[in-house]
Amino acid sequence: MSGSKSLDLYIGNSLEVVSANPSQTVISFTYRNSSDNGSQVKFKTRNNHLGLNYKFKTKKSKDVSRVFSALGPRGVSVETGKVEKKKTGLKSKDMAGIASLMVNTEVKEYVPEQPKVENSGGTSSGAGSAAGGRKKKGKKKGKKR
Prior knowledge:
- By secondary structure, the protein is of the alpha+beta class.
- The protein has a single domain (2-103), classed as Signal recognition particle alu RNA binding heterodimer, srp9/1, CATH 3.30.720.
- Helices cover 26% and strands 22% of the residues.
- The protein is built from 4 helices and 6 strands.
- The strands form 2 sheets. A 4-stranded mixed beta sheet has the order 1-4-3-2, covered by helices on one side.
- Strand 3 (40-47) and strand 4 form a beta hairpin.
- It is elongated and about 90 Å long.
């Protein structure tokens, strides 16, 4: 059993175990709400066939979010170790998500849609406002006739 102190180390080790033997790897998490110490989440990655167990526990919601992102199809970006930084010169590397290993398909990158601009029927002469070239009519205040 190995209790990881680094979140990036836990994510990397879990990804390697799942990629080596996905059918017999179990990833579990336990949430405990304690009024004394605050809430705590424990993550466990276990593969009895390979004899590997990895644990990570945290009280930070940001760490929980990163682990769930690593479980998803898009993955996360993790910091490289000192030796790897010297070899490659990269400070971080992108890791594929664990779900993408199980699905065995390529995940498309999310591209947000651009809002479509509608042209208001006529051509604008450039002298009018940007919203179609028409001036807004003001409301008449006073008595109705």
